[in-house]
């Protein structure tokens, strides 16, 4: 619990506690409005699957901006080839705009491919055995 308190001190500070007692303001994430808005719970992030490999973040943002204010549009790419993995995320300013985009865009064609649109789920780390990354080093074996 003490570690959690330490982490929250990095992100939050109480401003003028005598006025309200619980007024909290953000210290960091001021450079990235998508993080600020999604932290507050105002924004809604959508998962977009089935994208063409030629779809750009600008094109994705443009296609979804007709349903509301797009805060951020990202396409996930492979680290090695730098090629699109065929899915991405769009963050809207409000839940209503996101729901409208889900109902209107799910199953529609974008750049020649039918896309799948749904609410983004939180990323979970796999539990269990870690993935092997190659043979062990000589130092690890005690040689």
From TrEMBL:
The keyword RNA-binding applies. Residues 44-122 form the RRM domain. It comes from the Eukaryota. SMART domains: RRM (SM00360). InterPro entries: Nucleotide-bd_a/b_plait_sf (IPR012677), RBD_domain_sf (IPR035979), RRM_dom (IPR000504), SLIRP/GR-RBP-like (IPR052462). Pfam families: RRM_1. One of its GO terms (molecular function) is RNA binding. The keyword RNA-binding applies. Keywords: RNA-binding. Residues 124-143 are annotated as: Disordered. This is Small rna-binding protein 11 protein.
């Amino acid at each position: 619990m003490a570690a959690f308190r330490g982490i929250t001190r990095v992100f939050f500070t109480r401003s003028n506690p005598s006025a309200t007692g619980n007024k909290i303001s953000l210290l960091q994430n001021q450079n990235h409005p998508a993080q600020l808005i999604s932290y507050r719970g105002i924004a809604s992030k959508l998962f977009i699957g089935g994208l063409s490999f030629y779809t750009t973040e600008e094109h994705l943002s443009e296609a979804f901006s007709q349903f509301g204010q797009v805060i951020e549009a990202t396409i996930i790419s492979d680290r090695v080839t730098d090629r699109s993995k065929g899915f991405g995320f769009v963050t809207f300013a409000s839940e209503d705009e996101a729901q409208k985009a889900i109902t209107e865009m799910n199953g529609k064609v974008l750049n020649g491919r039918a896309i799948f649109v749904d609410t983004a789920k939180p990323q979970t780390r796999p539990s269990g055995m870690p993935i092997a990354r190659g043979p062990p080093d000589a130092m690890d074996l005690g040689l």
